[in-house]
Amino acid sequence: MSFVISKEIQRERLHAMKVLVVDDHPLFLSGIRGVIESLADEVCVLEATSAEDAIAQIEREPDIDFICLDLQLPGLNGIEFLSELRRRRVPAPVVILSALESPGIIHRALKAGANGYISKTAPRDELVKGLSAIARSGHYVSSALRRPLDSFRAGIGSAGAGGVNLTRRQRQILDLLASGLSNPEIAGQLCLAESTVKGHLATLYALLNAETRTACVAEAHRLGILEDKL
After folding, report:
1. 62 — phi, psi (to 5°)?
2. Nearest 10 degrees: CA dihedral of 160, 161, 166, 172?
3. Using H for helix, E for strand and C for coil, what is the string for the chain?
4. What is the pLDDT along the chain (230 residues), one digit of tens a residue?
5. Phi/psi class of residue 165: alpha, beta or left (left: φ > 0; alpha: ψ in -120 to 50)?
6. Torsion over CA of 17, 94, 87 and 16, rounded to 10 degrees?
7. Has residue 159 been placed in a domain?
8. Does some domain include residue 47?
9. C-alpha to C-alpha distance for 211 and 107, rounded to whole angstroms
10. Are strands 94-98 and 116-119 parallel, antiparallel or unpaired?
């Protein structure tokens, strides 16, 4: 497999780095390794297929320069793993590489401590550009994701000022959440993919400034979005 990197990106090459890639898909791990090895003169790529495996790698290799993280992992998910990294005060910057493009999920990941977010559907140059940008400034979000994220954050600002505007689908999911349904049950009742439900929930959590399902429902009741059921 060959990777063609533009001249502009080649000028951004780093001298040396050690990168931990956390993803449970072997083919994706292999492809990312090829891209990363094109970025620096000296590269050490470590691989982990779960958050627990990644933590063990970090304990053995504390001088990691970057962590590339998928959000959908077995065991601890990506958001939970970010919280664990923060608790352990791991200094390596984290860039999310995910197929999930919901602004709510992106916002939640960045709020949890991620330094960057890149879609798995982005061109190969995007990862190279993102890692170089994070090395320089500490932050990067794919250009294709930035405008939806900015719009979403503007919506959060409006919500904070007292005006929470939910879509019809968000209200449906919130009602089912308040009824105690699990994500698979909500997905089944609304004929949605479970990943779509998770995306909507991430948006609801962000809009209502909640970290858990219980807190989300409680805040919705407080704001009058949900009516108390007798």
Report:
1. -70, -10
2. 60
3. CCCCCCHHHHCCCEEEEEEEEECCCHHHHHHHHHHHHCCEEEEEEEEECCHHHHHHHHHHCCCCCEEEECCCCCCCCHHHHHHHHHHHCCCCCEEEEECCCCHHHHHHHHHCCCCEEEECCCCHHHHHHHHHHHHHHCCEECHHHHHHHHHHHHHHHHHHCCCCCCCHHHHHHHHHHHCCCCHHHHHHHHCCCHHHHHHHHHHHHHHCCCCCHHHHHHHHHHCCCCCCCC
4. 333 334 444 445 556 789 999 999 888 888 888 888 877 778 899 999 999 999 999 999 999 999 999 998 888 889 889 999 999 999 999 999 998 888 878 888 998 899 999 998 888 888 888 888 888 888 999 888 988 888 777 766 555 445 567 788 888 999 999 988 999 999 999 999 888 898 888 888 888 888 888 988 888 877 777 754 43
5. beta
6. 10
7. no
8. yes
9. 13
10. parallel
CA neighbours closer than 13 Å in the CB half-sphere of residue 138: 3
Q: 228 in a domain, yes or no?
A: no
Number of structural domains found in the chain: 2
Looking at residue 51, what is its pLDDT? Answer: 93
CB 116 within 8 A of CB 137: no
Domain extent at residue 60: 7-146
Q: Are residues 131 and 19 in the same domain?
A: yes
